[in-house]
Design brief:
With about 60 residues, this protein is mainly β. About 0% of the residues lie in helices and about 50% in strands. The strands form 2 sheets. The chain has a 4-stranded antiparallel beta sheet with strand order 1-3-6-5, with no helix packed on it. It has a 4-stranded mixed beta sheet with strand order 2-7-8-4, with no helix packed on it. The radius of gyration is 11 Å and the shape is globular. The model has no long low-confidence stretch (mean pLDDT about 95).
Length: about 60
């Protein structure tokens, strides 16, 4: 459970970013969500965290080759 990578780190396609119960972290651009609310990368790129609301953060992956 919890964060597997931090903001600014490079991730590969399919790599798990967050394991969670419920939707504390929300998927943004180039991020998918699994049945168990696991967030994973859809493309190779750099992870970025964005404050969406007080209690929720949006996670997106900026594509990089």
């Amino acid at each position: 459970m919890g964060l597997k990578v931090s903001s600014g780190e490079f991730v590969k396609t399919g790599e798990i970013i967050v394991r969670q119960r419920g939707r504390t972290f929300i998927p943004g651009q180039n991020v998918g969500i699994g049945r168990d609310f696991t967030l994973f990368s859809k493309v190779n790129g750099v992870v970025q965290f964005i404050n969406d609301t007080r209690k929720k953060k949006k996670i997106k992956v900026n594509p990089k080759e």
